[in-house]
Amino acid sequence: MIPRFLTCAGGVLVFLLGSQPVLAQADASTGVEPRWYVGAEAGKQIRTYSIDRQGFGQFTSSLGAQGAYAVSPRLLVQVGVQYGRGNKPNEELQGSGSFAHYPQTEQITRSWTVPVQLRWSLAKDPHRFRLESIAGIGLCFFRQRETGTNTATATKFVKTNSGTNGYLDAGIGGRLRLNPQFDLTADLLLNVNMARPNNSYFPIAPGFGSGLSLQYKFR
């Protein structure tokens, strides 16, 4: 899974490096200087997490920080880091035989996600409010806790697992210019787990997320 993630990351890097001369020429012709952005964000997601190709869905809430660089008036490259926790444990059904460890719960106790995004403005000219198309990749490091009762022996157990998953992200965002220094952004994103768990209802293991961030701009 990690080599596949690195291949995608390398493709994004090649695209950015190859586009630099064209974008630099566009900036020179318009007289627009590149700008840097830093910001804070809050979000809520549902992701499919995979451990040993076994997947489970979990709602998480997250807080994070981000930095971005305006490569051109319409293209923004953004990198962030997000810390998240599962909202509540997932409850499994009672079982017997090979399912004798039920009832059982699963919960993401903590996660660290590093998303890298390309944000393309759908408006050719600057506006106070504009829509942006978003495409990106993300690497998530997480810890999962399982709790349950073995119905055959009536004993309880707690198990901790760790995993690393790569995701593809795509969606749309809205950017509102509050003043020359501050922007407010709101994003809606679909995510796909690149590990493709064996037990996922869909082969692409889809998820969904939303986020709100406040960004400060400077040259």
UniProtKB/TrEMBL annotation:
This is Outer membrane protein beta-barrel domain-containing protein. Keywords: Signal. It comes from the Bacteria. The keyword Signal applies. It holds the Pfam family OMP_b-brl. Residues 1-24 form the signal peptide. Residues 12-190 form the Outer membrane protein beta-barrel domain. The keyword Signal applies.
